[in-house]
Specification:
The structure is a single chain. It contains twelve helices and ten strands. It is an alpha+beta fold. A hairpin with a 5-residue loop joins strand 6 and strand 7. The chain is globular and about 80 Å long. The protein binds protoporphyrin IX containing FE (HEM). The site of protoporphyrin IX containing FE has 27 residues, from strand 2, strand 3, strand 4 and helix 8. Its main location: other. Keywords: Heme, Hydrogen peroxide, Iron, Metal-binding, Oxidoreductase, Peroxidase, Peroxisome. It is found in: Peroxisome. Belongs to the catalase family.
C-alpha cells in the first residue's frame, strides 16, 4: 500500500507535523508535563489545539435524511427537449453536465441501518453553466402530506418517541389517522418497494410538479422520473434482517464498491408533461403531491442519462457539507404553485444556514462551478477572495450589469387570503387502484405490515376503526381483509 495515499492532498502539505498555524511539531506523542508524571501545562498549545479541533468535529446532522451516501458523475442529454425548456444544460443531445448525487434514508440518525422501511432520498445537484439546479427527490413518486404546515408534526410522529427514543407504531397511526391524503404514500412505504435493496437499484422521482419554460415563454408542467438501468430491487423483511444484521452500511458500501470497481450505476431521466391549460380537467389536482399522473395519459418521455463514476474524495466534504435545496432552479425550469414545494423553497436554505453557516454556498461542493457575482459578503466563515472597493449596486465604477432576462411563469395570480385544503382531495382512488394492481400475495404482505402498525398495543379502537374506514374507501376488500386481520389479533 502506498503510504502517501493516506496523506492530505493540500498543496501546502508539509513533510512533518505542524500546528494549524504552521509551527513545526517535534513531538506528537507526549503532552507537555511537569516532570514525566504530570500535571499537564496549559501552555501545551499543540495539545489544546488538537483536542479543541477534535471536540468540534461534529456538525449538526440533517434534521431529516441524516444517513446518506454521495457520488459524483455526469448527466448527458440524449433527447432534444429544447422546444420545452431553455435550460442551458438541456440545450442539445450530447451536452454533459457534472453532477453530485446523495441518496439517503429519511427518519433515523446519521449512523442508522440502511435496511429500514423508510423512503429514500434521491437528490441530484447539476453544476450547470447557469448555476446549480437541485432536483431533491425521493424514491417514491408521491408524498404523505400536501401542506408544509404539517411537515414538522409529521416528522415528529415518524421519529422516535421523545420519551424513550423508540419509533412507535401508535404515534404514526395516530397522526396519520387525521390525514387520509397519506394513503397513497403508504401504498409505497408498506409495499414490497418499501426497503430498496441498495441505492443503485432504486428509482427516483422529482415528486412535485415543476414548470418548464421555453425561450419563447411557453409554459409546460412537468414531473421528473429517474429509472435505473440495472433495474429495481428491494428486500423483503427476512432479507432485510440478514443484510442489515451483517452490515448496517450495506447500501453505502454497495455504491462505493460498484463505483470503485468501474461498475458505474446509471439512470435514465424521463419527464411527463402537461399543458397548464389542462390543469382543471381531471378528477385530481395535478399539483397535488399525493398524486401521480397516469402514465397512459402522460407518457414518460426520455431526456437524458446520468452516470455516477466517481466516489467522494472525502465523506465530510462531499456528504456532510453537501446542501441541496429545491429552490435552486435555473432559467428554463421554475416552481409550480404546489404548496408543499413552496414551503420547501424556504426550509432548506434556512436549515443549511443553521447546519453549515451563512456562507454554506461557498463550501466547494455547494459552490457553483460557473462565474458568479453579487455583493453578499462577510459573515461567519467567509473565505471568498474579494478585491473590490465597490460593494454596492448600482455603481458607475462596477461594469457588472444585470443578466439577460429569462422567461418567467406568466400566470396571473388573484384570490382571497385563505387557509384551505385543495378542492379536489380525492384521497382514495389512486391508493385503491394501486392495491388492486398487485397479486394476492403482495396484497397480503401489505395488509400484514399495516396491521402490524395498528396492532401496537397503544393504538386505540378508534384509531384502528378510522384506518379500516379509510382503506375500505380505497378498496372495500382491502378494508375487510385488514379488519379480519385485526380481529384475528384480538384488536378490533
Ligand atoms: C432534506 C425539509 C419535503 C426530499 C430535508 C431537510 C429539511 C427538509 C429541513 C434537511 C436539509 C439539510 O439539512 O441539508 C422538508 C420540508 C418538506 C420536505 C419542510 C415539506 C414541506 C420533502 C419532499 C421530498 C424531500 C416532498 C421529496 C420529494 C428531501 C431529500 C433530502 C431532504 C432528498 C436530503 C437532501 C440531502 O441528501 O442532503 N428536507 N422536506 N423532502 N428532503 Fe425534505
Amino acid at each position: 500500500m502506498d503510504p502517501m495515499k493516506h496523506r492530505p492532498s493540500s498543496s501546502h502539505d508539509a513533510p512533518y507535523w505542524t500546528t494549524n498555524s504552521g509551527a513545526p511539531v517535534w513531538n506528537n506523542n507526549s503532552s507537555l508535563t511537569v516532570g514525566s508524571r504530570g500535571p499537564i501545562l496549559l501552555e501545551d498549545y499543540h495539545l489544546v489545539e488538537k483536542l479543541a479541533n477534535f471536540d468540534r468535529e461534529r456538525i449538526p446532522e440533517r434534521v431529516v435524511h441524516a444517513r446518506g451516501a454521495a457520488a459524483k458523475g455526469f448527466f448527458e442529454v440524449t433527447h432534444d427537449v429544447s422546444h420545452l425548456t431553455c435550460a442551458d444544460f438541456l440545450r442539445a443531445p450530447g451536452t454533459q453536465t457534472p453532477v453530485i448525487v446523495r441518496f439517503s434514508t429519511v427518519i433515523h440518525e446519521r449512523g442508522s441501518p440502511e435496511t429500514l422501511r423508510d423512503p429514500r432520498g434521491f437528490a441530484v445537484k447539476f453544476y450547470t453553466r447557469e448555476g446549480n439546479f437541485d432536483m431533491v427527490g425521493n424514491n417514491m413518486p408521491v408524498f404523505f402530506i400536501r401542506d408544509g404546515m404539517k411537515f414538522p408534526d409529521m416528522v415528529h410522529c415518524l421519529k422516535p418517541n421523545p420519551k424513550n427514543h423508540i419509533q412507535e407504531g401508535w404515534r404514526i397511526a395516530d397522526f396519520f389517522s387525521h390525514h387520509p391524503e397519506a394513503l397513497h404514500m403508504f401504498t409505497f412505504l408498506l409495499d414490497d418497494v418499501g426497503v430498496p435493496a441498495n441505492y443503485r437499484h432504486m428509482e427516483g422521482f422529482g415528486v412535485h410538479t415543476f414548470m418548464l419554460l421555453s425561450k419563447a415563454g411557453k409554459e409546460t408542467l412537468v414531473k421528473f422520473h429517474w429509472k435505473p438501468t440495472c433495474g429495481v430491487k428491494c428486500l423483503l423483511e427476512d432479507e432485510a434482517v440478514v443484510v442489515g444484521g451483517s452490515n448496517h452500511s450495506h447500501a453505502t458500501q454497495d455504491l462505493y464498491d460498484a463505483i470503485a470497481a468501474g461498475d458505474y450505476p446509471e439512470w435514465r431521466l424521463f419527464i411527463q408533461t402537461m399543458d397548464p391549460a389542462d390543469q382543471d380537467k381531471f378528477d385530481f389536482d395535478p399539483l397535488d403531491v399525493t398524486k401521480t399522473w397516469p402514465e397512459d395519459r402522460f407518457p414518460l418521455q426520455p431526456v437524458g442519462r446520468m452516470v455516477l463514476n466517481r466516489n467522494p474524495d472525502n465523506f465530510f466534504n462531499d456528504n456532510e457539507q453537501l446542501a441541496f435545496c429545491p429552490a435552486l432552479v435555473v432559467p428554463g425550469i421554475t416552481y409550480s404553485d404546489d404548496k408543499l414545494l413552496q414551503t420547501r423553497i424556504f426550509s432548506y436554505a434556512d436549515t443549511q444556514r443553521h447546519r453549515l453557516g451563512p456562507n454554506y454556498l461557498q463550501i466547494p461542493v455547494n459552490a457553483p462551478q460557473c462565474a458568479h457575482h453579487n455583493n453578499h459578503h462577510d459573515g461567519f466563515m467567509n473565505f471568498m477572495h474579494r478585491d473590490s472597493e465597490v460593494n454596492y449596486f448600482p455603481s458607475r465604477f462596477d461594469p457588472v450589469r444585470h443578466a439577460a432576462p429569462t422567461p418567467m411563469n406568466k400566470a396571473a395570480l388573484a384570490g382571497r387570503r385563505e387557509r384551505a385544503v385543495l378542492a379536489k382531495e380525492n384521497n382514495f382512488a389512486q391508493p385503491g387502484q394501486r392495491f388492486r394492481s398487485w397479486d394476492a400475495a403482495r396484497q397480503e404482505r401489505f395488509i400484514g405490515r399495516m396491521a402490524d402498525i395498528l396492532l401496537d398495543k397503544r393504538c386505540t379502537q378508534e384509531i384502528r376503526r378510522i384506518w379500516v374506514g379509510y382503506w375500505s374507501q380505497a378498496d372495500s376488500q382491502l378494508g375487510q381483509r385488514l379488519a379480519a386481520k385485526l380481529q384475528a389479533g384480538g384488536a378490533l
